[in-house]
Amino acid sequence: MQHLSPDTRKSPFKGKTGLMRIWNAFRYSFAGLRAAFEHEDAFRQECLLAAVLIPLALFMPTGGAGKALLVGSVLLLLIVELVNSAIEATVDRVSLEHHLLAKRAKDIGSAAVLLALVNLAIVWGLVIFG
């Protein structure tokens, strides 16, 4: 078995270090947010929901922990939707044919979004109604 040095295990696509790496990571992340907003209806709808719920959470008469839970549940929904969109785009990139494994991957991603929505509803319900 051949042992790989740290240099040979490194991806050829990664070359930047330090501040340039951080800057590139920010640019790629922003490009991902823009792509999701432009191409994913569900992400746009959830961003609208976040634009309403996050300010509402910050003005609710609850302590810092309550506000953090409320905002965190909204951000978790957006994060899970981004991951689901990435899964769907990857599956579609591999093949547009109907395949059981492609359906399974997309359904599991969708289930994750559903659970994030359920989590949001439970957190908001518990914080508001005790």
Automatic annotation (TrEMBL):
<feature type="transmembrane region" description="Helical">
    <location>
        <begin position="69"/>
        <end position="87"/>
    </location>
</feature>
<feature type="binding site">
    <location>
        <position position="21"/>
    </location>
    <ligand>
        <name>ATP</name>
    </ligand>
</feature>
<feature type="binding site">
    <location>
        <begin position="97"/>
        <end position="99"/>
    </location>
    <ligand>
        <name>ATP</name>
    </ligand>
</feature>
<feature type="binding site">
    <location>
        <begin position="42"/>
        <end position="46"/>
    </location>
    <ligand>
        <name>substrate</name>
    </ligand>
</feature>
<dbReference type="GO" id="GO:0004143">
    <property type="term" value="F:ATP-dependent diacylglycerol kinase activity"/>
</dbReference>
<feature type="binding site">
    <location>
        <begin position="106"/>
        <end position="107"/>
    </location>
    <ligand>
        <name>ATP</name>
    </ligand>
</feature>
<feature type="binding site">
    <location>
        <position position="81"/>
    </location>
    <ligand>
        <name>substrate</name>
    </ligand>
</feature>
<dbReference type="InterPro" id="IPR036945">
    <property type="entry name" value="DAGK_sf"/>
</dbReference>
<feature type="binding site">
    <location>
        <position position="40"/>
    </location>
    <ligand>
        <name>a divalent metal cation</name>
    </ligand>
</feature>
<feature type="binding site">
    <location>
        <position position="88"/>
    </location>
    <ligand>
        <name>ATP</name>
    </ligand>
</feature>
<keyword id="KW-0067">ATP-binding</keyword>
<keyword id="KW-0472">Membrane</keyword>
<feature type="transmembrane region" description="Helical">
    <location>
        <begin position="108"/>
        <end position="129"/>
    </location>
</feature>
<keyword id="KW-0997">Cell inner membrane</keyword>
<feature type="active site" description="Proton acceptor">
    <location>
        <position position="81"/>
    </location>
</feature>
<feature type="transmembrane region" description="Helical">
    <location>
        <begin position="47"/>
        <end position="63"/>
    </location>
</feature>
<keyword id="KW-0460">Magnesium</keyword>
<comment type="similarity">
    <text>Belongs to the bacterial diacylglycerol kinase family.</text>
</comment>
<keyword id="KW-0808">Transferase</keyword>
<feature type="binding site">
    <location>
        <position position="110"/>
    </location>
    <ligand>
        <name>substrate</name>
    </ligand>
</feature>
<keyword id="KW-0418">Kinase</keyword>
<keyword id="KW-0444">Lipid biosynthesis</keyword>
<keyword id="KW-0443">Lipid metabolism</keyword>
<dbReference type="GO" id="GO:0005886">
    <property type="term" value="C:plasma membrane"/>
</dbReference>
<feature type="binding site">
    <location>
        <position position="40"/>
    </location>
    <ligand>
        <name>ATP</name>
    </ligand>
</feature>
<keyword id="KW-1133">Transmembrane helix</keyword>
<keyword id="KW-0594">Phospholipid biosynthesis</keyword>
<keyword id="KW-0812">Transmembrane</keyword>
<dbReference type="GO" id="GO:0046872">
    <property type="term" value="F:metal ion binding"/>
</dbReference>
<feature type="binding site">
    <location>
        <position position="21"/>
    </location>
    <ligand>
        <name>substrate</name>
    </ligand>
</feature>
<keyword id="KW-1208">Phospholipid metabolism</keyword>
<dbReference type="GO" id="GO:0006654">
    <property type="term" value="P:phosphatidic acid biosynthetic process"/>
</dbReference>
<keyword id="KW-1003">Cell membrane</keyword>
<keyword id="KW-0547">Nucleotide-binding</keyword>
<dbReference type="Pfam" id="PF01219">
    <property type="entry name" value="DAGK_prokar"/>
</dbReference>
<keyword id="KW-0479">Metal-binding</keyword>
<protein>
    <recommendedName>
        <fullName>Diacylglycerol kinase</fullName>
        <ecNumber>2.7.1.107</ecNumber>
    </recommendedName>
</protein>
<dbReference type="InterPro" id="IPR033718">
    <property type="entry name" value="DAGK_prok"/>
</dbReference>
<feature type="binding site">
    <location>
        <position position="88"/>
    </location>
    <ligand>
        <name>a divalent metal cation</name>
    </ligand>
</feature>
<dbReference type="GO" id="GO:0005524">
    <property type="term" value="F:ATP binding"/>
</dbReference>
<dbReference type="InterPro" id="IPR000829">
    <property type="entry name" value="DAGK"/>
</dbReference>
<comment type="function">
    <text>Catalyzes the ATP-dependent phosphorylation of sn-l,2-diacylglycerol (DAG) to phosphatidic acid. Involved in the recycling of diacylglycerol produced as a by-product during membrane-derived oligosaccharide (MDO) biosynthesis.</text>
</comment>
